[in-house]
Amino acid sequence: MRRIVNPRVRRNSTPSDFVALGLLFLVIALGASQTVISNNVFGPYEYRLTVGPWIRGLIFFHPDMQLMTHVPLLLQIHIILSFALFAVSPFTRLVHVWSAPIRYPSRAPIQYRSRFGTFTSPKSRRANFDLSERVNGSESYQVASRRTDMD
């Protein structure tokens, strides 16, 4: 919801983010409606006897299509949209679900401070430093002298 409600986050979002968000909402809504509404109106459907073995067969490249013939339409759409969500996830921000910050605890700390204690614009910093001298194999930052005379 933050991606839709917050203007700053919405400006930084891409169309693929909204596609993934829409698919996620649809998958959740269809799953919840299958569980709450369909089970109470039409009676409970034992998906573990049909959908479960079909998914296992799909994983091992031996799906039995006969298992899906009597599955309720709402559940079939839920499964198709779930596959679509997995298909688009590498091209959206959902790809971060598959990454783990293993090197994060050992990374160097990031310091957010000015080099000289006061803020100067990048343009004035470039004008005041001479990067041409090298001391002991590393660059030496020398403050360039400013001309004060008007010749």
Give the key terms:
151 residues; mainly alpha; 6 helices; 4 strands; 45% helix
Q: Please summarize the sheet with the most strands.
A: 2 strands, antiparallel
The structure class reads mainly alpha
Give me the side-by-side strand order of the main sheet.
1-4
- Arithmetic mean of pLDDT: 78
Please characterize this protein's 3D structure.
- The protein is mainly alpha-helical.
- The chain has a domain at 2-97: Transmembrane di-heme cytochromes, Chain C (Fumarate Reductase Cytochrome B subunit, Up-down Bundle).
- 45% of the residues lie in helices and 5% in strands.
- It has helices spanning 2-5, 7-11, 15-41, 51-59, 73-88, 122-128; strands at 129-130, 134-135, 138-139, 142-143.
- The chain has a two-stranded antiparallel ribbon with strand order 1-4. A two-stranded antiparallel ribbon has the order 2-3.
- A hairpin with a 2-residue loop joins strand 2 (134-135) and strand 3 (138-139).
- Helix 3 runs antiparallel to helix 5 (73-88).
- It is elongated.
- Residues 138-149 have low confidence and may be disordered.
Short description:
45% of the residues lie in helices and 5% in strands. With 151 residues, it is mostly helical.
Tell me the layout of helices and strands.
Blueprint: H1 2-5, H2 7-11, H3 15-41, H4 51-59, H5 73-88, H6 122-128, E1 129-130, E2 134-135, E3 138-139, E4 142-143
Antiparallel strand pairs: 1-4, 2-3
Helix pairs in contact: 3-5
